[in-house]
Design brief:
- The protein has two helices and 20 strands.
- The protein has about 280 residues and is mainly β.
- The protein folds into two domains: about 120 residues, no CATH class; about 140 residues, no CATH class.
- The strands form four sheets. Strands 1-2-3-4-5 form a five-stranded antiparallel β-sheet, covered by helices on one side. Strands 6, 7, 8, 9 and 10 form a five-stranded antiparallel β-sheet that branches. Strands 11-12-13-14-15 form a five-stranded antiparallel β-sheet, with no helix packed on it.
- A hairpin with a 4-residue loop joins strand 13 and strand 14.
Length: about 280
């Protein structure tokens, strides 16, 4: 990125983004069972792993433990013995699919199976499903649009699902992108974490330069002899004509370069191979 002084912040961004999915997927919820001995009829992580392997529900994937989380509760009506298993996948989004079982006739029987990344938790006798919202341009493992949740309720014969409820998008992590040519890299942040300043930082490889835009519209422009050479994430490319809004900032990718402004004041900059120029009042 822009300077060696900036490399520490960028490295921290990389570590945070890399850990985002696992931190979300590992969040605890009421009724979460993580370890126990296998015992027929007893809801436990070990029993769930045995059932998923017996029913071949892991789609042929070879993982050490096909289930990473289990919920136990009366999800199939009062007094029922039900088990909800989150299925494992060795990717950046480790909870890929979930399944509901009931114990009947001396064995666990599959009631319902859902595919796709989701975090399930207990909501009384209902099952709450939470999934991330991917915005246009988000990389596969880094959703930036917050989350949405819905409830699955047993009506006596089957599960019925309620409407999605969208939560507010999280802005407590920097959002990065590159120009289509790859010459311009930008990071935007307008959250509350003390680890990051609320600003937009853009840099170019040719010529080596960077600019910082603060929320009050001030610019800090620097020239560099070379890039920092640090180990940083490679953000997705933002196509020409597309834009990204993060809090009070907006950046637009154009063939003439990248323009970033403070939305309210219109103050900002244009960065390209010719340098950095101020835009707005």
């Amino acid at each position: 990125m822009a300077s060696r002084a900036l490399s520490g912040s960028i490295t921290l961004v990389a570590l945070m983004l890399a850990s985002f999915a696992w931190a979300v997927a590992s969040s605890s919820a009421g009724g979460d069972v993580r370890s126990d001995a296998a015992s027929p009829g007893r809801c436990s992580l070990a029993e769930a792993n045995a059932v998923v392997e017996r029913l071949h529900l892991n789609d042929g994937l070879v993982v050490a433990k096909p289930v990473n989380r289990v919920l136990c509760g009366p999800f199939l009506g009062p007094g029922s013995n039900a088990m909800v298993a989150s299925l494992s996948r060795e990717t950046c989004l480790p909870n890929f699919g979930w399944a509901v079982f009931r114990f009947a006739g001396g064995a666990w029987q599959l009631v319902m199976k859902r595919d796709g990344f989701a975090i399930v938790s207990k909501a009384g006798s209902d099952i709450q499903e939470e999934v991330p919202i991917f915005r246009s341009g988000d990389p596969h493992c880094i959703p930036s649009g917050g989350t949405k949740t819905r409830l699955w309720h047993w009506n006596g014969s089957r599960f019925v699902v309620g409407p999605w409820q969208v939560t507010k998008a999280k802005v407590d992590q920097p959002t990065g992108f590159r120009s289509p040519s790859g010459n311009i890299t930008c990071w935007m942040y307008d959250g509350s974490s003390p680890k990051f300043s609320r600003d937009v930082v853009c840099s170019t490889d040719t010529p080596p330069q960077f600019v910082i835009l603060t929320v009050d519209g001030r610019l800090k422009v620097r020239k560099m002899d070379s890039g920092c050479g640090c180990d940083e994430p490679d953000p997705p490319r933002l196509a020409y004509g597309k834009q990204i809004t993060v809090g009070r900032f907006r950046c637009v990718s154009e063939e003439i370069g990248v323009t970033c402004t403070v939305i309210k004041s219109g103050k900002g900059f244009l960065i390209n191979r010719d340098g950095v120029s101020r835009v707005g009042p």
